[in-house]
Amino acid sequence: MPLSVHHLLLLLSVVVATVSAHNITDILSSNPDYSQYNSYLTQTKLADDINSHQTITVLVLTNAAFSTVAAHHPLSVIKKLLSLHVLLDYFDPTKLHQISDGTTLSTTLFQTTGTAEGNVGSVNITDLKGGKVAFGSAATNSKLDSTYTKSVKQIPYNISVLEISAPIIAPGILTAPPPSSDLNLTALLENHGCKTFSSLIVTTGVIKTFQSTVDKGLTIFAPSDEAFKSKDVPDLKKLTSAEVVSLLQYHAIANYLPVGSLKTSHDSISTLATNGAGKFDLTVSVAGDSITLHTGVDSSRIANTVLDSTPLTIYTIDSVLLPTELFATSPSPAPAPESDVPSPAPASAPAPVADAPSPDIASPPAPIGKSPEDSPAEAPSHAADSTEKGAGVHVKGSAVITGSG
Ligand SMILES: *[C@@H]1O[C@H](CO)[C@@H](O)[C@H](O)[C@H]1NC(C)=O
Ligand SMILES: *[C@@H]1O[C@H](CO)[C@@H](O)[C@H](O)[C@H]1NC(C)=O
Ligand SMILES: *[C@@H]1O[C@H](CO)[C@@H](O)[C@H](O)[C@H]1NC(C)=O
Ligand SMILES: *[C@@H]1O[C@H](CO)[C@@H](O)[C@H](O)[C@H]1NC(C)=O
Prior knowledge:
Radius of gyration: 28 Å
Distance between the termini: 46 Å
Helix content: 25-40%
Order of helices and strands: HHHHEHHEHEEEEEHHHEHHEHEEEEEHH
Main location: membrane
Domain FAS1: 21-168, 181-321
Largest sheet: 7 strands, mixed
Bound molecules: 2-acetamido-2-deoxy-beta-D-glucopyranose
Shape: elongated
Signal peptide: 1-21
CATH topology of the largest domain: FAS1 domain
Low-confidence stretches: 1-5, 8-18, 332-405
CATH superfamily of the largest domain: FAS1 domain
Subcellular location: Cell membrane
Family: Belongs to the fasciclin-like AGP family.
CATH class of the largest domain: Mainly Beta
């Protein structure tokens, strides 16, 4: 069938376009000496972050060099530490030995998290005489007590993997952030321009769902106060309280998804609103550094990362996410069948049964001229129930995306 071939080609081209140039997990998997380091790259989702960067250098540690520090710290600290070992530049062994003036600073993934102050997020690389290259924190008074030991893998100008002798420790990097369960979520959201969202999750009790989920991983997309003022946002007062809860739960995922993981999510993602009856899922698209969430009804750009601390990520977004389960516009104009139920003239009713999404629950329309009593009473009332959502809320096809960050 020509259509399916076309479909397949389309699918293949999409898959090819989204495949990363490199896979750090795969590169490290061939050497059991790096198994701990590799396992932590996966657990902290840093592997996704590394794969989504086009020019990167990973400084790896053997199990012997890494196990002590790994054993004594929580995952959130290990993530900070490992992200200091990922340089946002390409250094192969040749380049290491050709650093101009013998010393340079390189920005790391840790710098991009926004929690690094001053030079703490950078690494000092110094070409010592006699062929040795040393690494240390770029923060003042740090020691250069880690050295280059060997090359592991290079894909020229995309990824270089180098083994070093000891962890690079920056001041304060081993201090654990407060546990997510101690976090004042409402205060954090309010301070980042999301007062409306914050008060809605409190009044509906959705915050309790968030709190009970957070330990196993949670990602929250908090629409800004501006987003709630958009004319495309339906009047929440017209929704049932269960629908408001679903709408709010749709803004969270029961998984820790930092930026790199969002960028590499190819499939649709389930949300906290996902249940047996409703998919309530999202898809993600990426253009450069910009990440956009798509609901099927509208889309929203991710504006800022408020918090990225394993196992919790909080982002602000520019538009309220409108799930198709609640806001898909009905394909045909919604009739007002309830007023026609007692009407004695079925001919004047514009066959509401035809608009019911599940024709099997409705009987065929009564032939014109038959007495109204022959028309089953529940048929139009079913139709009324099933079209009510579509009729009550009219939503435009896509939300206006504004702002910057
Ligand atoms: C990377 O490689 C690992 C191990 O070979 C594999 O399990 C994983 O699916 C790969 N990831 C991607 C994004 O291709
Ligand atoms: C790197 O550290 C060494 C030793 O502390 C220092 O002399 C050098 O100036 C530093 N390099 C840069 C680029 O700051
Ligand atoms: C390196 O990255 C560039 C840009 O993503 C890509 O076009 C190129 O194919 C990559 N090179 C290799 C050897 O994978
Ligand atoms: C959290 O912060 C809000 C103010 O934003 C405050 O009203 C509330 O008492 C705080 N909760 C806790 C448990 O500290």
